[in-house]
């Protein structure tokens, strides 16, 4: 390049910059050794051209052109392919910090940019874990880990994988709820893609702005129902970011194949609308045709840009939209709603594991749901499907074992004209009942499942009533975050005299009752969706069917042992989550092949080993 005239090089570079940038952003480096790429944001075109040509711009002059430019004078950001020096240290995907070897430091112009010490990745991890543990405020821990993810991607995931039980509550529930509430105040760097009403008619163009082109999993929210916290608008982005971090850490899906998206249609949260640091549209939430048209454009654009094998996971949409979107797109797109299907699968797995040791089948039990939203009815429907398959009866017959209580009381046939369509399946013949305790006394359920988001709704009287009816009452307090949990683990065990089979949506510490230590089971969707997503990806599935969700639940339940159950666990320990996800992925993939929905052919002989081989590894790679 030094032999070219500077003017000729400038012409070549100016016509190929955009092509180089696109090539760099979509590069996939294979093999055991790879050359990292970088971005050179901020250089003017002329100065970047000169840098490429090896032309000195002189002494201590402003080689990047930034100091010479005024604030209103535009500069040209563009990319080159091979990262080196300072740019490599600022590239989270390829940065290794003090783990760069002597040879790598010389080859990539890092000499002097790092202290002379060379630390193995394990020692870096040890230091970071100590730093995390010194932070007492959960939100500070969350911000520390998000900064690490933006600085050194592989080290972040290694830390997560090796310490998943300790760090899961930090990067996801319950801490992510507070992070979303304060997202505007703690916002530092965009971690996903924002599509707003301003982008209507240009959604495909917005998707194409994302640098990665080989996307396999999208998690999308409109922020209307974030956990049990309500409408957080654009600040709900913390949910897709957190979910996809778990897709990689727990399920082994490549980070570069994951895309978090928030669709901003406004918010009805007055506090946010009046918050000077709010990052979203300052308008009331759009509904009706305006909302529908934007979602339609988004779904069409996703398939056009990424193909039909990209998994779109709907997350934290309000009930009225969640069911409608899933029903609308399940026949034409690869879609999954974690609040409906993921929650249902993890709860069904807990019920199946509990019954495996407590005795009986699903058909022998009566289930009472406190909460008839997307989570409650989603669980109910999957339980009915599994029950009908086990007992070889119709789903309509299976519905008779399931009762729902909503904000107006027990759902009964006399209320059919005033309830939403998805609740009508569970409107049985019965006298109206206004409160949960009365419903328990009338229905005499063997399992009580809470998903209403009403904290402390499982009172002492409620737990005692369940315990008087059942030798081993099943109590599942699923609402998130912890403040919305229907009861605590300590309350469930003490009020049931240690007889409850308990599970919760948020984590609780072990409980000692009558000299016996109970380890509360967390019915966390993270047991299901990472493995489920991996199974969909490795099989190349083109649609999601209920049988695939059932397969995931059955695979999870099968990994609970008698030893686990003796400790009060109805789920296997999270310390083995990658093994759990591998088995779930294999079962989901197998079901996709059985149903003729898989496109990756031929079918691997050993799907478990194949799933393991496809999982992302956070171990540092060597660079040429």
Can you characterise this structure?
This protein is an alpha/beta fold. It is 43% helix and 10% strand. It contains 26 helices and 16 strands. The chain starts with 5 loop residues before the first helix and ends in a 10-residue tail after the last helix. Residues 340-593 form the Malic enzyme NAD-binding domain. It comes from Triticum urartu. Keywords: Metal-binding, NADP, Oxidoreductase.
List keywords for this structure.
624 residues, alpha/beta, 7-stranded mixed sheet, 26 helices, 43% helix, globular, disordered N terminus, NAD binding, Malic_N_dom_sf
Summarize this structure briefly.
The chain has 624 residues and is α/β, with parallel strands linked by helices. The protein is built from 26 helices and 16 strands.
